[in-house]
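Researcher: Quick test of sequence recovery. Tokens follow.
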């Protein structure tokens, strides 16, 4: 039994891969928008575990669905039909544009992007990929090709497929790269990891038109910006476009690992055997996702994010904090670009009992659970003001 903080951290440090820069905090419990360390100290969670905990922590309906399904049927490969999987298809179908009705279920965001790449190649017979500078689509070798940040990609040069990178909000740049050999164009309607940049609606409409003209599939990566976070169920809806494919992950299953890729019904199916996943579409994750989507609906998550997000953005901008260069965002997906590196600010906020996440070297990212209250957002703004003023 590990009982002291020193033990936990020492053991992790001794054995971790090294892939993660660690923060000196051991989190052992969560409830709503609050996380607790091993001493019982509370932290306001403005990161949702990197955008996952859309419903906060310990949501009773999700917890109950998981417990019940674990006792009923925990695994069931896709070679068999399953009631929970069918219910999840129906639930996703009801949220997505009517044109979109085929799904491949998997276990993480990057797997959804892998599947999207393979499906796009199979359905178009083309090989070309276009993605955007500042874009992030995951870390496995296929998805990594579409992820912009060179330090993520370069150590694996030669191993990953090649993507061309267009400049965001610059249609001429996309026009030069999307050809009749392009299978897929990947876009986050709000770029998350790259610094929280909402893309212009006109630009997204232009991308939609270019893809249609040239026969490339437009793939909206909604892993971070989807499921109500930005004030609509899907961020591409702000531009009133319908993509050809949509990737989902992060909060999809209320905190359990799950990813999904959905595509237009008219594009058809892929052949059996060309893709698959042992855990894909498992009833446990499906049950959690059904409960999470029901709870998000009951919360009217898009309307809530729109309203609270507008308040948060307005409040952050109105303070004109000396350390802040720019405040960007849409709904409850907010980036605060600082005039300096973000790490000391994250540490100072943590010392005040507030947890947020970075997006790049200088941007503080706020991705609160969508159940957050205005009072909690006000606390976060106040903490940021205090830190910015060196208090
Ligand atoms: C987090 C993220 C991914 C990757 O998801 P993982 O579950 O970490 O593999 C892909 N795309 C976007 C937009 C993301 O935010």
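Model:
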């Amino acid at each position: 039994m590990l009982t002291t903080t020193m033990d936990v951290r020492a053991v992790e440090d001794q054995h971790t891969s090294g892939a993660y820069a660690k923060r000196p905090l051991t989190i052992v419990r969560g409830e709503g928008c609050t996380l607790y360390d091993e001493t019982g100290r509370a932290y306001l969670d403005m990161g949702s575990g990197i955008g996952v905990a859309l419903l906060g922590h310990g949501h009773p309906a999700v917890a109950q669905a998981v417990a019940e399904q674990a006792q009923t049927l925990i695994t069931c490969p896709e070679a068999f039909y399953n009631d929970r999987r069918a219910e999840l298809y129906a639930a996703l179908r009801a949220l997505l544009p009517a044109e979109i009705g085929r799904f491949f279920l998997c276990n993480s965001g990057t797997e959804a992007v892998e599947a999207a790449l393979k499906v796009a190649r199979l359905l178009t017979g083309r090989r070309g990929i276009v993605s955007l500078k500042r874009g992030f689509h995951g870390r496995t070798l296929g998805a990594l090709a579409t992820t912009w940040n060179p330090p993520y990609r370069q150590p694996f040069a030669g191993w990953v497929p090649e993507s061309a990178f267009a400049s965001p909000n610059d249609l001429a740049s996309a026009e030069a790269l999307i050809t009749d050999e392009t299978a897929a164009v990947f876009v986050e309607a709000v770029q998350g990891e790259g610094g929280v940049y909402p893309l212009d609606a006109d630009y997204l409409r232009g991308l939609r038109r270019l893809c249609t003209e040239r026969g490339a599939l437009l793939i909206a990566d909604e892993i971070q910006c989807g499921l109500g976070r930005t004030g609509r169920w899907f961020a591409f809806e702000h531009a009133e476009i319908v993509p050809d494919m949509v990737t989902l992950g992060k909060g999809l299953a209320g905190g359990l690992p799950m990813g999904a890729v959905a595509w237009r019904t008219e594009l058809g199916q892929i052949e059996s055997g060309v893709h698959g996943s042992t855990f894909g579409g498992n009833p446990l994750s499906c049950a959690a996702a059904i409960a999470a989507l029901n709870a998000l609906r009951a919360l009217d998550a898009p309307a809530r994010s729109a309203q609270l997000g507008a308040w948060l953005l307005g409040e952050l901008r109105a303070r004109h904090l000396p350390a802040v260069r720019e405040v960007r965002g849409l709904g409850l997906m907010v980036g605060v670009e600082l005039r300096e590196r973000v790490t000391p600010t994250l540490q100072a906020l943590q010392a005040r009992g507030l947890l947020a996440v970075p997006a790049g070297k200088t941007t503080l990212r706020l991705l609160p659970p969508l159940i957050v209250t205005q009072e909690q957002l006000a606390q976060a703004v106040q903490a940021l003001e205090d830190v910015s003023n060196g208090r």
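The chain has a mean pLDDT of 97.
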